[in-house]
C-alpha cells in the first residue's frame, strides 16, 4: 500500500509539472489565440480577453486554470467557442484509443509470430528477408508511410478511402496500418533477438537433451521468458502510438486527440492543448502502471522492484 501511495503521488506530481511546463511554454510563444481578430473594435478585444481570462496576470491565469482542472473542468476552447475542451476530448478520445489499440494489436499479432519464425530459421534466407523488411519498416517515418499508403491503396487501387472518419472499418484500415508498421517491425526484431537469447540458455540445451522439443518446448517453455522484453516494450510502444497519432490523424483528416493537439498548437488554443497534454500524460502514467503489473505477473522476480 505505501508503494501504491508513493507511485500515485509521483504520478500526480509528474502531471502537475508537465502541465505547468506546457502552460509556461504556450504563454511564452509569440502570438495569441485572437491575433486574427486585430480588426475588431477595442471593446470586442477587451471582451474576448475578459471572457477567457487573458486580461489577468499570467500567475492569476495559471491559478484559475489549475483550480478549474482540480474540479474536472478543462475550460472552454478558444478556437471552438461552442464547445468546451471536455466535450472535444470526449468526442475525439474514443477515436484515438480505437485506432491506437487496433494498431498495437496488429503489431503484436503479426510481429510476435514473424519474430519467432525468424529466430527459428536464423541465418536462412527467410530470416534475412524478414529482418530486412523489419529494418525498412523502422526506417520509414509515419509522415512518409501514411501518404505512400494513400497513394497505393486509395489513389492507385481505389480499395480504401484516402481520409476522413465515418466510424466504419474501411476508413480505419490505412491509419491503423500507418500507426502499426514501425511497431510491428520493432516487435518482430525484439521477439527474434529475445528468443535467440533464450535458445542459447543452458536449461534449453538440457531440455533438448532429455528429448523435449518441437511445439511443446516452444509454447510451454520458451515463449514466456522470450516475451518478457516484448511486454516491457509495450509501454514505449503505446506512447509511440499516442505520439504518432498526431501525424497520422492530421494526414488522414481524422478528428482525434492528435489532430486537436496539432490544430490547438497552431491556433494558440491554450486550454485545448493543455487538456490534451493532461489526458495523454494521465494515459501514459496508467499505461506504465499496467505494464509493470503485467511484467510482475509474468516474472515473479520483478515483483520486488
From TrEMBL:
GO cellular component entries: plasma membrane
Transmembrane segments annotated in the record for this chain: 88-117, 129-155, 167-186, 226-252, 272-291
Broad class of the protein's primary localization: membrane
A biological process term (GO) from this entry: transmembrane transport
Keywords from the named record: Cell membrane, Membrane, Transmembrane, Transmembrane helix, Transport
One Pfam family it belongs to: BPD_transp_1
Compartments, record wording: Cell membrane
Residues of the ABC transmembrane type-1 domain: 93-295
Keyword Nucleotidyltransferase in annotation: no
Membrane topology, record value: Multi-pass membrane protein
PROSITE patterns per UniProt: ABC_TM1
InterPro entries membership: MetI-like, MetI-like_sf
Annotated coiled-coil segments of the chain: none
Similarity annotation: Belongs to the binding-protein-dependent transport system permease family. OppBC subfamily.
Protein's recorded name: ABC transmembrane type-1 domain-containing protein
Source organism of the structure: Arenimonas composti TR7-09 = DSM 18010
